[in-house]
Each structure stands twice: as structure tokens, then as C-alpha cells.
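R.M. (postdoc): so does anyone remember the format we settled on? I'll just put the C-alpha cells first.
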């Protein structure tokens, strides 16, 4: 397991932002929950005020489900170029279900995917990413923000 620290995130934000910038997205759609921290940071870095989220689940803890569940909706009716943001493309099941769903709901939108990490064996690859993952990644928001018992 690899712990992805806040310092790594801070150092990675601007290089990932620079990769995404030429796409000229007008909307960022964060995949909840993993993509929300990165989505917010990219929205600030790229100065994109239309930041939305959609909840897509394919894991229970660190166990992958047999199916993907898309929960909730987003309103991309005014969007033209949407940057879909998640923390990692692991198996790729989440995005392999989400992207066709979004394209069917919003056929006039162009969708591109941005992540911090991808696994080379994933069903779908992001358009923009910084790192290949070969181990389980534990992101700082999965560890550092957990409630701890008072001492």
C-alpha cells in the first residue's frame, strides 16, 4: 500500500492542471467521493466555477462490487466541455459505466477524464493523469480526515 500525502497532492496539482488546461473545460464533474478533493482543487486552479458531483460506487471499502451504482444526478444542460475527475482509475469499471451514461444523457457535451493515478490494466484510461499505480493507493483524505478518539 502506498500513502499519497498532502504534499504529493500539492506538488501534483499544477502539473495535472497544466495537462487539462488545453481542453478548456467549462464544467468539472467530480466523481464522489474520491474525485471531490481533486475536483475542487482543479476548479480553483483552472478557474472553473461550474463544479458538480455525481456519486458512483463500485467498491465497498477495498472490496470491488460485481456491479456499478450511479446515484444522484448532475445538471450539465448548459455545459459544452466537461472534465470528469476522479482520484484513480483502478479497475476502470466506475468510469466505463459513467461515461456512456453521461454521453447518453448529454450528447452535445464533450467529456474528458482527469485522474491522479491510473492502472495500466483498467478497462478505460483517463485522458489526463500523472502516475501509474501498481499498488493500492491510500489517499491522504482517506486517512488524515478520519475522526479520531479524543485523548
Amino acid at each position: 500500500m502506498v500513502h499519497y500525502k498532502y504534499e504529493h497532492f500539492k506538488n501534483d496539482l499544477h502539473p495535472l492542471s497544466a495537462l487539462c488546461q488545453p481542453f478548456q473545460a467549462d464544467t468539472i464533474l467530480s466523481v464522489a467521493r474520491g474525485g471531490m478533493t481533486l475536483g475542487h482543487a482543479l476548479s480553483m486552479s483552472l478557474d472553473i466555477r461550474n463544479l458538480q458531483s455525481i456519486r458512483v460506487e463500485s467498491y465497498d471499502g477495498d472490496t470491488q462490487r460485481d456491479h456499478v451504482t450511479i446515484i444522484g444526478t448532475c445538471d450539465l444542460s448548459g455545459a459544452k466541455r466537461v472534465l470528469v475527475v476522479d482520484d484513480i482509475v483502478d479497475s476502470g469499471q466506475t468510469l466505463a459505466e459513467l461515461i456512456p451514461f453521461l454521453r447518453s444523457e448529454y450528447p452535445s457535451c464533450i467529456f474528458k477524464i482527469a485522474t491522479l493515478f491510473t492502472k495500466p490494466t483498467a478497462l478505460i484510461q483517463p485522458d489526463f493523469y500523472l502516475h501509474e499505480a501498481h499498488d493500492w493507493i491510500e489517499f491522504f483524505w482517506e486517512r488524515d480526515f478520519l475522526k479520531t478518539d479524543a485523548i
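R.M.: ...and that's the designed sequence above, right after the C-alpha cells. Also worth knowing: The two ends are 28 Å apart (CA to CA). The mean pLDDT is 91.
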